[in-house]
Amino acid sequence: MSDPILEVTRLFKSFGGLSATDDLSLSIRRNETHAIIGPNGAGKTTLLAQLSGQLKPTSGSIVYQGMDITQWDVVKRVRRGIVRSFQITSLWPQLSVLENVMLAVQAQQGHAFHFFRAATAVRNLIGASCEFLHMVELEAKMGAQVYSLSHGEQRQLELAVALATRPDLLLLDEPLAGMGGDDSQRMVDLLHKLKGQYTIVLVEHDMDAVFSLADRISVLVYGRCVATDTPLAIRDNEEVRAAYLGEEAIC
Amino acid sequence: MPESTSLFRSALFDSLVSAPPEKRYPVEFWLGALFFILLACVPWLASFLGEPFYVRLLMRMMIFSIMALSLNLILGYGGMVSFGHSMFVGVAAYVVGILGYHAYEANALAIGPFQIQGSLNALFTWPIAVAATALVALMLGAVVLRTSGLYFIMITLALAQMLYFLAVSMEDYGGEDGLQVMGTQMLGNLDLSHRTTLYYVVWVCLCGVFLGCRTLVNSRFGLVLKASRQNADRLRAIGLPVFWYKLVAFVISGAIAGLAGVLLVSSQSFVSPADMAWTRSGDLIVMVVIGGMGSLFGPVLGAFFYLAAEYVLGNITEYWQMIMGPLLIVIVLYARTGIVGVFLGAGERKNRI
Hints:
Chain A is α/β, with parallel strands linked by helices and about 250 residues long. Chain A has a 6-stranded mixed β-sheet with strand order 6-7-8-3-9-10, sandwiched between helices. Chain A has helices spanning about 45-50, 75-80, 95-110, 125-135, 150-165, 180-195, 205-215, 230-235, 240-245; strands at about 5-15, 20-30, 35, 60-65, 65-70, 80-85, 170-175, 200-205, 215-220, 225-230. Chain B has helices spanning about 5-15, 20-25, 25-50, 55-75, 85-105, 120-145, 150-170, 195-220, 220-230, 230-235, 240-270, 280-290, 300-315, 320-335, 340-345, 345-350; strands at about 110, 115, 180, 185, 190, 270. Helices cover about 75% and strands about 5% of the residues of chain B. The interface of A and B includes residues 74, 114, 119 and 121 of A.
């Protein structure tokens, strides 16, 4: 396998007396899809927030492509290619679908201190934005205001916004959250398309999706990583069964 | 990117970039143009009617429109509720007033070791006043923009009060009574003491500021500004440092308010601390809100409506605020998108946000 793109070493994060991340070490390989699973409250979202820079760990280190990024803020990490999506949809509801993606493309192009030309007259900006809308199959809705989209469509747009920043490492926080049936299947198909093109850290509760998508799976319990292995091995891992599958039903 | 998307791209370009002209110039555009043309006719109409006072009233309305437009940039589009916007107006007005005072008295203004000659040359004093305001906005913005929400309101109010009391304490320049600007201001060859001349200068400024705001909110910078009001965290998550965008907007807004201050002091030949009082900041917020927050034309209508109501009701009774207050409440309750929303319909305005 290829070299690690992200190396997490002995990460601790505590909120008061509660440790949300407890001596966690993790290695993410380039272009793999690495799923992180665990029961509610296992610290999955807290881990993502530390990888993306929203939260600073209490101790431990995060090394990304050979650079120690533990103290970097969100903006700096995004500029080097670490981008997250959100479990609770986080978009700009009163802008159009196209404008939402345009913002991310602008960010990726450096800055948006352009005061004169109308944003809708910048061809390469619209062109690039359309490509990402095409990827997530939302191009038909590009003129619509985001608040008028269905939940499933908003989840697709959430992904398009993250992709438009051209990440190297994509941190997806429950992309299937709140989706059912067709919507859910469309998103899984989409993730299958992305798999292999990006390094993806996937936090997800839908076990069918996780086991079909992931190259490797890490299991978190009470902020601790109890196992990291291939999906097949995780299924048969006794420790995982006892700590996680045995205790709570898979949801 | 997959190759197959390039064909699709060009089809989209055509539909987007060559949008039908009526879509690019909506009804609002033509109504706005008509409004500005009518304004240009006011001096002629007023002399025809033998009511020169209207020139004065309409000029004041236009100056307040500029203030409201500048506030709307940060309040309506950027979501920054500044409760101290009149401080920028006051700073610029005092700069022009003080320079004029020293020119008239023919003694130089001494700041430490520096001697500054007073001046009544608007080509010199106006840019200085606007630049000074922008500088004040930059320094204050760097502090206040670290807060948001209620804290932002309170800290802008506090700083505005600070500058207000600074103005009150300047005994040399009239203190609480204000400063009369003596002498004649010249803008190039234009004699600004001539009312109609000044009227057209104000008119040109208003048109320029309106078109400037229009360009700004439609630009890529404007897109980020609008997005920062709706979801600032997400902007950071895609790698845009929101603070700097807000700061630039704050400075632009302050500079435009400074321009309004320059015009205000020129039109009334007088500046007093009342021009930068917190009540004035409150009036500006009311103008923006009743006109239509986050729409381009709303603040202009709001300013005109507010001053017209003040004038008309003021003629009826000394206690005009007794009527004005309930009227504002009714507008805010029943026309939540402001006066602009009433004209254009709620649906259309939503698209303009």
